[in-house]
Amino acid sequence: AQQQIEDGFYVLGETIYRVKTSKAGRPYALKADESGHFEYEPGGIARLSGARAMTLEDAKTFGHRFGSCCMCGRLLSDPESVEAGIGPICANKYF
């Protein structure tokens, strides 16, 4: 039986995934593309067995790389948020 993966953000190698649960109650995976946008990846959930939960440092690295918050997708525009790589609301909410 496949292990149930909870909603959240995961790292597998260099790739970041977001796991969500459908209205039918099944988890599915969205994969971050080269521009930092998350897109559905068919069968992606099955590949996440070796993934680890995203850390605050991972989220900051994403923010620095793409200029947006990986948690909410908003553009990082406040100088402190740009420096941190994540906005204060998401940093407190998820970490």
What is the topology?
Blueprint (H helix, E strand, L loop, with lengths): L7 E5 L2 E7 L5 E6 L5 E3 L11 E2 L2 H11 L12 H6 L3 H7 L1
Antiparallel strand pairs: 1-2, 1-5, 2-3, 3-4
Taken as a percent bin, the fraction of beta residues is 15-25%
Instruction: Return the average pLDDT rounded to an integer.
Output: 91
Query: What is the radius of gyration computed over CA atoms, rounded to a whole number of angstroms?
Result: 13 Å
SSE pattern, N- to C-terminal: EEEEEHHH
Uncertain regions: pLDDT < 50 for 5+ in a row? none
Sheet having the most strands: 5 strands, antiparallel
Structural class: alpha+beta
Q: Report helical residue fraction.
A: 25-40%
Tally of helical segments: 3
Number of strands: 5
Can you tell me the overall shape?
elongated
**How would you write the strand order of the largest sheet?**
4-3-2-1-5
The span between the termini is 30 Å
Can you tell me about this structure?
- This protein is of the alpha+beta class and 95 residues long.
- 25% of the residues lie in helices and 24% in strands.
- It has 3 helices and 5 strands, in the order βββββααα.
- It has helices at residues 56-66, 79-84, 88-94, and strands spanning 8-12, 15-21, 27-32, 38-40, 52-53.
- The N and C termini lie far apart (30 Å).
- The model has no long low-confidence stretch (mean pLDDT 91).
